[in-house]
Amino acid sequence: MQWCPRQSRPVRTGRTTPPERSHDVTENEPLDRHPRRRRPPGGRRVAGRPWHGPRHHTRHPATASDTLVNGGALASGATLSSGNARLVMQRDGDLALYTVGANGTDQQLRWHSGTTGEGNKAELRTDGNLVVTAPDGGALWQSRTGDRDCPHMPWTKLALRSDGVMNILSGSDSEAPYLVPLWSSSYGLQFPCGVSGR
């Protein structure tokens, strides 16, 4: 160290090595100088970052907020949404597709099944057919995209777009890079399923 005339304290001119701290290691204590980075079984630590505990993977439901996969259903009052589009299984029994303005107003009806009856539900059956059913199980409306009316690949889903269009799509499985449209709320049945009055 040397004395700085402008300051009343010494100034360090070189790097000193701090004294080593004594650490008593007991017989059962692990040799670990960084206990916060200790990793229990199943944990994972990224190099250069402290470990924050094991990762717990959450099982996601088969139905996303804008998608209904085969075997899924919309009970009375349930909704799918994408952007400003809403598909609602209304309590009066009608399956209806709306778009709303940015502020939540100016609701416009884009498509509906035309069904009535309290307790109705919409289900995308495992064969790919979208059906509005009464509480007793009777079919009130259907998209006619089942295997009997429209041969297609085994996996199907109903997808709602933010512009207010919903489509029923098919593919080999949920990871298929390309999906074939079977039905659209704008045009009804698509090739090769045929032509529909929506």
Automatic annotation (TrEMBL):
Keywords for the protein's UniProt record, in alphabetical order: Lectin
UniProt cross-references to SMART domains, sorted A to Z: B_lectin
An example Gene Ontology molecular-function term: carbohydrate binding
Region annotation (Disordered) ranges: 1-67
Sequence ranges assigned to domain Bulb-type lectin in this UniProt record: 65-181
Segments traversing the membrane: none
Comp. bias intervals (Basic and acidic residues): 18-33
Matches recorded under PROSITE patterns: BULB_LECTIN
Protein name: Curculin-like (Mannose-binding) lectin
Lineage: Bacteria, Bacillati, Actinomycetota, Actinomycetes, Kitasatosporales
